[in-house]
Structures are given as C-alpha cells and as structure tokens.
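Weekly puzzle thread! Below is a chain. First person to post its structure in token form gets bragging rights.
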Amino acid sequence: MRRNRYHNIAALVALMAVATPAAAQEFRCQVEVNSQKIEGTNKSVFESLQSSINDYMNENRFSTATFSPNERIECRLYLTVSEYENDRVKGDLQVQLSRPVYNSSYTTTLMNFKDSKIEFEYRDGDPLTYNETSQQSNLTAILDYYAYLFLGIDFDSFSLNGGQQYYDRAQSVVQAAQSGGEVGWKAFEDTKNRAAVLSSFMDNNTSGIRRLLYDYHRKGLDEMVTSPDKGRAVITESLKEIGTIYKNAPMSVALSMFRDAKLDELVNIYSQAPSTEREAAYEILQPIYPTDMERLEKIKKGSDQSN
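Winning reply:
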C-alpha cells in the first residue's frame, strides 16, 4: 500500500530494486489528443494516436518497483496537434504529475509543464512498442522520457534523492535521442526543452530542487494534516532552495516549473499562517517571480486582507 511508502521508505526503496514486475503498472495516466487545429484530415488517425499513447503509458512497465493498483502514479498528457503533414505530427504536450498527501483526500501537483518541442512520425495504426534498451521512434522516446521523469520526481517526493535511477534512465533516453536529430533533445538548444528540464534535476547548480521535492512534500505537506504549523514551517524553509537555484541559475526551467506547480497551492498553505511566515515566503519568492505579484500578495497577506 502507498502508506508503506511513508512509514518504511528506506526498506521500500531497497525492495524496489529487487522487486519482480508482478504487481500493477506504475501509472494511471489520462491521455488526450486535441486535433482541432487540423482541418481536412481524417480524424481517426488522432483517435488511434490517443489510444496508442494511452495503452503505452498505462500498460507497459517502466521499472521493477512494486505498485499496488491504488498506488499508481496519477499523471496527464495533453497533446495539442498544430500540424500534420506526410505522417509527421507537430504540436505541444502539456504534462502534469500529481501525488496524494498522506492521510488526506488532497492531491498536490508535482509537475505542470508544457513541452513545445513535440515532433514525431505517426501513421494511423502504427504500433508503439516499449523497449528498455533501444528507442523504437521519437514518439516512444518522448513517452519513455516522461515516464522516467515522472518516476524520478514521484520517488524524490517520498524519499530524499529516491528517484536517482529514473533520472539516470531519462538521461540515457536523452543521450540516445540527441543522435537522432529531432528537436527538443539537444543540450543548450533552448532553456526549456527536454534536455534542459532533466538537467535542472541533475546539475549541481539546480539539483536542490530535488531536496525541495522531499522536504516540501514528505516533511511538509504530509505533516500538515496532523501538525499544520510544523509542516508549514518545513515548507517555508524548503523555499530557500528555490532562492538558491535563482542565485545559481536564474534562467533555469526549474524556477518556472515550480511556479506553475506550486504558487496557487502556496496561497492556500499560507492563508492561515502567522505574518512572520508569510513575510518570509514572500521575501524569498518576490525577486524570483516579479510578474506574479497578484498571487504573491495573497501569500503575503494571507486570509487577513487588512494586513
């Protein structure tokens, strides 16, 4: 059960390394392909594409970790197709990842990111085959990359640096894909492509995002159910990692990913916080996100708008 991932993390991580793939697949992934921008094309190809991606993410196993059916990781892939010509799909992919907060009905967002560098070949009915050791197509490489990234982030949120093996596997996908010449994979191609996203978790200047994932979620949110003040204090302290990332790499995609996943949640977290905590969070976040003043002011003021 997922509860075991909280109460015996060290033992569970050890078991995951030797577990057999008999348990349920890792993901409960919602997949949607939006082809409204495409005119004059048989829409069945996009229905087939959606079904194929759905099956790929929800029926393949991407690790040897043990998951019971109710522990499957919640994620969403929303592909918007902007071009389709000569069997080549171009568009963007919104990826979302979430996790439950312990002993509550609340679900928190771990990742909310738009990948604008999506291009791949696909013909109606093309099979998508998972192969752990080789890439079958650019589409499967993209799906493998996000599957491993999701696993890395999820495991990091339950144990400190617990997702390392999955970032390593995502790195192998990136390295193999870089030789294929497709967009979105090259280092320094831009600051928000797939190579840059992965680097934000692996580069020493920005890898503090991984400690934040653990402190914010496992030691912060998970504790807030029984001890709101204690959990919130840990979250406030964890925000210093974002400040450090900003000092080390002000253009890092880690900063925008954190904003898109967490700013709205932070408004709620600090709604009942003492003014000292609200001020502390505001002072950390304001220099990093100056264009998000409306939400930052809500964090600063909390539920007492007269402050």
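Puzzle host: Confirmed. Bonus trivia for everyone else. The chain has twelve helices and four strands.
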